[in-house]
Amino acid sequence: MSIQVKVAATTANLGPGFDTLGMALSLYNEVSLERSDSGLQIEIEGFGKGEIPHNDENLIWKAMEKVFEKQGVADKNFHLKMKNEIPLSRGLGSSASTIVAGLLLANEVCNRPYGLDELLILATEMEGHPDNVAPALLGGIVVSAMDRGEVLYQCIEPNEDWSTVVYIPNKPLATKRAREVLPTSYSKQDAVFNVSRASMLTLALMRGDLDLVGRMMEDRLHQPYRLPLIEGYDKIFDAAKQGGAKGVALSGAGSTLIAFCERKWEQEVLDRMEDAVCSNSLDGVCKILHPLQQNSYFE
């Protein structure tokens, strides 16, 4: 038995769509599975090597166990090899990618007893919210909501002419820390501000209106509290817009910043952002990442 799965990074929130909107990006974690004669074995290459557990505490195995337990499978004789391109704790959905990969692998081992909707429920149970796991599993842009334990979602196909440029700081920002800085309550004005922009943003995404997407990326629920945790965020925002980006936002809980632009301007946006990193002595890298039409697949 030999199975390989490749799952993409994701960017969540897209500004005002807090815990609701997500999009798959062209950066991947790959996992291969083979039979083992000596119990569970896990190899790790790339991000997380030296940090991620090599035993049954590994998140990918925990995801696999979730399927196996439901199917009555007690087998642990597997050799897993993880190749991680998605950095940890940067707001690019590394945990969502790992969870989805584990669920897909275990589902394949068990001859696919679960469809995508059922796998999405399992993934959401593990992650706590669907905004990253939904696009990690389904690809594209996904609008999601929880209703009495059910994950409701709608998929939007990204415009082929769109691109993103990300600034990925070398310093991680733990989701726990990013959650701690958020207020426990919000004013009515701030709630209305976000509802109006999240609604308009969803419509703009459906219509492929990048100008409107850029105008609707402001937020009052999480970005004003999280952005100050990221050194030089304002310099990156300014540089991206000077290069032609229509909008810039915090990716997920951070620390990555993501700029949205037309593909014809992606190199100019990248150059401006890299200049800002250099001139302000910031510690991080910039990359061009394209929105994905589809995502998880086997090789």
TrEMBL record:
Keyword Nucleotide-binding in annotation: yes
Protein name per the record: Homoserine kinase
Catalytic activity: L-homoserine + ATP = O-phospho-L-homoserine + ADP + H(+)
GO terms classed as biological process: threonine biosynthetic process
Organism: Filifactor alocis (strain ATCC 35896 / CCUG 47790 / D40 B5) (Fusobacterium alocis)
Gene3D superfamilies: 3.30.230.10, GHMP kinase, C-terminal domain
Binding site for ATP: 87-97
Pfam families in UniProt: GHMP_kinases_C, GHMP_kinases_N
